[in-house]
Amino acid sequence: MTVLQEIENKAYKLPLKERGKLIHNLIASIDNASQDYEAYDKEIKRRVSAIRSGKAVGIPAEEVFSKIASSFSK
């Protein structure tokens, strides 16, 4: 039996009110994840646009990692 099947079997044994709450919480978690992806997508588009328009300039990864490494060695 898979973990999902075990969870389903236990969920079916819950009282109706608790099953409803479980369903609500599971759906809410999907909605929140969807909103997060939308926010990430919007931010990525904003950053790409800023770089393409010249409003923002990228920093080479090697330089970024070097700064991070030096901040940990202090």
Structural features, described:
The N and C termini lie far apart (52 Å). The longest helix has 38 residues, at 16-53. The protein has helices at 3-12, 16-53, 61-72. The model has no long low-confidence stretch (mean pLDDT 90). It is mainly α and 74 residues long. The radius of gyration is 23 Å and the shape is elongated. It has two domains: 1-34; 36-73, no CATH class. The chain contains three helices and no strands. It is 81% helix and 0% strand.
Q: Could you give a quick summary of the protein structure above?
A:
With 74 residues, the chain is mostly helical. Helix content is 81%, strand content 0%.
Layout: helices, strands, pairs:
Layout: H1 3-12, H2 16-53, H3 61-72
Key attributes of the depicted protein:
81% helix, mainly alpha
Q: What Rg, in angstroms, do the CA atoms define? A: 23 Å
Multimer state: single chain
Question: How many beta-strand runs?
Answer: 0
Instruction: Kindly report the average pLDDT value.
Output: 90
Helical content stands at over 70%
